[in-house]
Design a protein that fits this description.
alpha+beta, six-stranded mixed β-sheet, 22 helices, elongated, binds cytidine-5'-triphosphate, binds calcium ion, nucleotidyltransferase
């Protein structure tokens, strides 16, 4: 440790030792510290958050001076603004034009994009003009994020002393308990024990009564009942040692990679995270135990993780306040009564600074998502498939980074979400276990899922498509070959069916019942798409859309629930929670985010035309019925898809062919586009690999 010693010996703050009480901490607490126990009152956590992260990435990449105002542009919006630019009053909410007016020297750097047909993302000069044909890539920032994480890990002692949790693309939590424990014992040999009478509940000797050197740290003011004249106890010393470590970590990151970050140091994750945002940029804030209450009471509780969303809104509505201060006056019984037992007691504790969640170094990516909102909507298979290709390339490159080639980690499922009007449909399929994951394999699977959406009917116009892979598992390496993957419970179930989900408006329902599910053979659709020529026609470009990467891009590193509120608090449903996985939760959240945007950009969908009296009709000879003219191309597509799937089915099974089931009939009401008939699909193991491209 290169930092100065913890005490400035020349500045004692207590004139006499006669008033000294015993330490509030015991030998047991000390040994709990070495185990990083979250219930240990000396437990010590740091949260590190990069300053204006994407903006710093661009500054480092472009080599611009540190005082140069710079913002990161995405289409016509700004998504990250460095601190020199913030001095001009710029924020994420201003447009590029406004920003340049406010700050003429501003550099606006567009994010990297995937251009249709390209193998890799790149920084394209005219990217901002190409919202319809390009897709944002956050890869450059992910790569920097990885370097920073590696630097931190390299600097800290090896696991298990080291405990680092990546909390988002630009944040980590460090549990410094075990490391600090080691330093404590070195610096204060009197702590080495044994405990008097061998009783671990005996208090520790008091620490020396010298002022602590907090160097450049921002110290949060103490609670009302406390004074700076009080002698420090071991918790203060633990914080001070942790603060030294964090200062050194930050210095290392700057020295190696030239990034500045801010940090919070406190007894738990919740407080550490609030601390890192307290003073920015390039500063660290320590929230001592004696300062927690006064620190927290200045906050709106909606700033506390897990209280920022729906749950927070509900609490605001229930108690008619958004401040911690006022909520502190509500008795626990009343919180429980109005919010349910779990949520009530969780809330009661969290606003008092109690949080026992762990820093989980094993937290790994749970899902990866690549998505795009279409404004205007897209209308053909070809268009959709071209986007799928980009999504797959995007996801695959991230999988490679995650070690999928070496079979270290492997997703089990692939999901396609499709939005049409107010309806969102999801199709899920297992990723065949017996094979190496390749771009082809994912592309085939994605196309297959799209085909299922199309066969269900009413696929167009499509306003949003997203592809994700999830259910990551550690791969089995070593003497077990890749074919040696075991198919277990859930997975085995997934192997036998593709899963269908549908949302119309707010309701999420599991649809359809088994009898209505459709049989789709994997591999069939690859022929389907293989036979069609990819057209180059782009859709009308009549609207400009803003796209936030948080809504439309990478799921990887999306902030996870780091604070583990009780299950009922997680969704903020006040007890009426649905059983959803965290992954679904994230995805749902995304959909919700886009809902507003969707309202703004909603195309005049044919649904509206349904309500009109006279709709031009055409006659489909194959179905022997009249259908609205505007459904014609979709309907033809449907027959085409259906025939091909059927053809494929016949080719791959000895069973005599059955007539195709009925195509989409007229749709009654909003979001009900399911054709009748069809059976539960049984995906065949092992997809046929076809050349594509
Ligand atoms: N980000 C984004 N959209 C959001 C929130 C964040 O694109 N709604 C991106 C930002 O571009 C940012 C990165 O995610 O660079 C990290 O976000 P955050 O830590 O919230 O902000 P910073 O830009 O890093 O700024 P700060 O210094 O305040 O942390
Ligand atoms: Ca940040
Ligand atoms: Ca952040």
């Amino acid at each position: 440790m290169s930092s100065p010693p913890p005490f400035i010996a020349s500045s004692p703050i207590t004139p006499s030792t006669t008033r000294r009480r015993k330490s509030a901490f015991t030998y047991k607490h000390l040994s709990q510290l070495s185990l990083s126990s979250t219930t240990c009152p000396l437990h010590i956590i740091a949260h590190i958050d990069l300053d204006a992260f994407y903006a710093q990435c661009e500054m480092v990449r472009l080599g611009v001076p540190t005082d140069q105002p710079l913002a990161v542009q995405q289409w016509q919006g700004l998504i990250a603004i460095n601190y020199p630019a913030r001095a001009f009053g710029l924020s994420r909410h201003v447009t590029v034009t406004e920003a340049q007016k406010l700050c003429p020297s501003l550099i606006t750097q567009h994010v990297a994009t995937w251009k249709e047909g390209d193998e890799k993302w790149a920084y394209h000069e005219d990217a901002f003009k190409n919202i319809h044909t390009h897709k944002v890539s956050l890869d450059p920032y992910r790569l920097e994020s990885r370097k920073i994480l590696a630097t931190i890990k390299e600097f800290l002692p090896a696991p298990p002393v080291q405990r680092v949790e990546k909390a988002s693309i630009d944040e980590v939590f460090l549990d410094l308990s075990a490391q600090v424990h080691g330093i404590l014992l070195e610096r204060y040999p009197e702590l080495n024990g044994p405990a008097p009478y061998d009783d671990p509940t005996e208090p520790l000797p008091r620490p020396p009564t010298t002022a602590l050197d907090w160097a450049t740290d921002a110290l949060v003011d103490l609670d009302d009942a406390e004074t700076e004249d009080d002698d420090p106890d071991w918790d203060d010393i633990v914080m001070q040692i942790a603060s030294e470590i964090v200062r050194d970590v930050r210095a290392k990151i700057y020295e190696k990679l030239k990034y500045t970050c801010s940090a919070g140091i406190s007894r738990n994750k919740m407080l550490a995270k609030l601390g890192s945002g307290h003073k920015k940029p390039n500063q660290q804030t320590v929230i001592r135990n004696r300062a927690v209450q006064q620190f927290l009471s200045g906050f709106k509780f909606t700033k506390i993780r897990n209280l920022g969303g729906k749950l927070g809104d509900e609490v605001v509505a229930a108690f008619n306040t958004d401040t911690v201060k006022e909520l502190l006056e509500v008795p626990v019984d009343q919180l429980k009564r109005q919010l349910g037992d779990d949520t009530g007691s969780w809330l009661y504790s969290i606003i008092r600074g109690e949080d026992h969640s762990e820093v989980n170094s094993r937290t790994q990516i749970k899902s990866m998502l690549s998505a795009k909102s279409f404004r205007p909507s897209i209308n053909t298979f070809e268009q959709a498939v071209r986007w799928l290709r980009i999504f797959v390339a995007d996801i695959y490159s991230r999988l490679v980074e995650e070690g999928v080639l070496e079979n270290k980690r492997r997703p089990k499922t692939i999901n396609l979400h499709h939005r049409q009007g107010a309806q969102t449909r999801s199709k899920q399929a297992p990723i065949p276990m017996g094979k190496a994951i390749s771009e082809e394999l994912l592309f085939d699977a994605a196309k297959n899922l799209l085909a299922q959406v199309v066969v269900d009917g009413r696929a167009w116009p499509c306003a949003n498509l997203s592809l994700s892979v999830g259910g990551f598992e550690d791969g089995i390496t070593g003497n077990k070959g890749i074919g040696g993957f075991l198919v277990r419970g859930e997975e085995a179930k997934a192997m036998n069916s593709t899963v269908n989900r549908e949302t119309g408006g707010d309701n999420m329902v599991d649809t359809p019942p088994p009898g209505k599910r459709r049989k789709v053979e994997e591999g069939g659709i690859t022929r389907f798409f293989g036979m069609r020529q990819e057209s180059t026609g782009a859709t009308d470009r009549e609207e400009e859309g803003m796209e936030s990467p948080y809504q439309t891009d990478a799921q990887e590193g999306v902030e996870q629930d780091a604070f583990e509120p009780p299950p009922s608090a997680q969704r903020g449903d006040m007890g009426k929670q649905k059983a959803v996985s965290e992954e679904e939760e994230e995805e749902e959240e995304e959909e919700k985010n886009e809902e507003d945007e969707h309202e703004r950009y909603r195309d005049a969908a044919p649904t509206h035309a349904l309500q009109q009296a006279s709709i031009e009709q055409y006659f489909c000879a194959r179905c022997n019925k009249s259908l609205p003219e505007y459904e014609r191309s979709e309907h033809d597509d449907w027959h085409f898809a259906k025939d091909l799937l059927e053809e494929e089915r016949q080719a791959s099974t000895p069973v005599p062919p059955r007539p195709p089931s009925k195509p989409p009939a007229q749709h009654k009401g909003k979001g009900r586009g399911r054709p009748a008939g069809g059976t539960l699909g049984r995906a065949e193991k092992g997809q046929r690999k076809l050349a594509f491209g």
